[in-house]
Amino acid sequence: MNTALFKVIRRETRRIADSWVLVFTTMIAPVVAFLIIIWLFSDGVVRDLPVAVVDMDHTSFSSKVTRMVDATPVCNVMWRLSSIEEAKQMMDRGKIEAIVVLPTDLERKVLNSGSPAIAVYINNSNVVKGGALKSGLYTTLSTISAGVKVQVAIKKGQTTAQAIEKARPVKVNVHLLFNPFGNYSYFLVLGLLPLLAVVFIFLGSVYALGMELKEGTAGELILLANNNVTVALAGKMLPYTFLFFMDMMVMNIILIKTLGTPVHGSLFLILISEILLIISYQSLAILFLKLTANLRLSLSLGSAYTMMALTFSGLTFPSIAMPLIAKIFSLIFPYTFWLQIFMSQTLRGEPISEVVIPFLAFIPFILGGILAFSGMKRKLTYHKYWFRQ
Fold this sequence. Notes:
Layout: H1 2-18, H2 20-40, E1 49-55, H3 60-71, E2 75-81, H4 84-92, E3 98-102, H5 106-111, E4 119-122, H6 127-155, H7 160-167, H8 188-214, H9 218-224, H10 229-258, H11 267-292, H12 295-312, H13 324-329, H14 334-348, H15 356-360, H16 362-371, H17 373-381
Parallel strand pairs: 1-2, 1-3
Antiparallel strand pairs: 3-4
Helix pairs in contact: 1-2, 1-10, 2-8, 2-10, 6-7, 8-10, 8-11, 8-12, 9-17, 10-11, 11-12, 11-14, 11-16, 11-17
């Protein structure tokens, strides 16, 4: 049996070396995809989003407010306008992401201890940009408001300390955990790189095994394995397991060394979870081919299946806020459980007991592939399943 396994592994290694598609899928494309994502999110945080200020006051104070808004890292005041309608038209055309409206009586009300209203319009069609603008503008305008209150109080005879206390009657002590800088590298990049790896793992495994059926070489594979489907499939998949794990190691180096993602937990657990993630998606690839016996259909279904994992993993939208059916649906993706382990052992540094359940969740996926072995043997053995597109 061991001799047969080694023969199958050697055969598959040669097939990889002789196939540009397999070399590209397993070694080149994942790394190139990683580098493209890193380049796209190289800034780490949102900066210099286009903003318009509608200044109806035209005073020194309104100019000061405009300068402070422009100094906010997330904002870039590209237009100073005098008409709200013009600003809204620019937002409708996608030229600006926010509008700050300074009313005509801004400075007068400030000097008379009034409460002028500064209106802010934010394009929230993209919640990430909208949230960043809302946070940045709110902080800036609140700082301006507090500064005005302090100056007015000092003019009325209060000490600086008394004025500051009056301006901030309630102090909020905020502690941002796990990602205090709002860095995209800890958010989108951390989820996108492994998702890309998952896509290549699944589709590469489907392609490698499906080509045996499409090219009619399945009989040669099963014969070389002494008619043992376990040996045939294990020997077929092991070279890819190794290559995809190397891709994951490159991903780890990028995330941890290059981007500085902290590892507050166990790196060993992360590596074990990545091996289980690879085996889980390879098992699912076998299951898909067993059910369809069609390379093209399996690749099409697999593309949709793997990409949906990001939506339901809880990364872009918190799983705790999902409807029950969406929470249940998220359980059909190994990526969901791997992401829980990775986040737990990198950003949060949780104890091992917190990742036991996500580790156990890989078992059903792997068992699903193993249970498909007998059906897959039928596909590999009978000619009627060969030479299909």
